[in-house]
Structures are given as C-alpha cells and as structure tokens.
Amino acid sequence: MSQGFDKLLDARGLNCPMPLVNARKEIGKLEPGQVLKVLSTDRGSVADFQGWAKVAKNVELLAQETETLDGASVYVHFVKRAT
Description:
about 25% helix; alpha+beta; about 40% strand; four-stranded mixed sheet
C-alpha cells in the first residue's frame, strides 16, 4: 500500500516512547488534513500509535506498514491531523 503524505519524520533508532513523542510534536505543526509519515525501528511503536489514535481527538491513524530498509524492519505509520 502506498499512502501519500505531507511530511516525513524519521524516528529510526529511537526507543519508546520517543517516536510517538516526536510525532506528537510534528503533527501539531501540520495543517488540518495533512498527513505525517513516521519511520520507526521500535516494534512497540505499532501499539503506541494505535493507542494514540484512539484517545487523541486531533489525529487519525490512516495506515501502518512494515518495510525493510537497510536490512532492518521499519514500522511505518501514516497519521492525519484531523483538526
């Protein structure tokens, strides 16, 4: 699946909860309707982003994918700023 996005956040190499913390900062800089793509090597980020999308009123989790980049599994999250 290929999802469009407006901004890329590379959080590879960061451990929990930093991918989510950085994503929360970046999503606040986007306009409503724009999409943030987050790259993370932290497996726990999958559940973190799902939980964030359930409780936050200003974000929507559009998709999650797993890719292999540079020989490592990378968890890719697409988050849309709703408001």
